[in-house]
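Sanity check

After download, print the first record. It should look like this:
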Amino acid sequence: MSTRFEGSYLGNAARLADDAVLECKICWHRYDPAVGDEVWQILAGTPFAALPAHWRCPQCDGDREQFMVVDD
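Expected structure tokens:
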């Protein structure tokens, strides 16, 4: 049994829409694919599912599994 939190997408990024905005449950940083990630040099238009495996929250260094889908 895994003790890792798998966000509201249950750790399966294939379940996410390409335009889904996700939020870190630790620090509330939002990853918006329309914006990308300047810290990790991720281009705008990059869906969460396409982020590199080593990508982590640019604000708190949390695992990508700590991100939850934003419903607003």
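If your output differs, re-run the checksum step. Summary of this record's structure: The chain has a mean pLDDT of 89.
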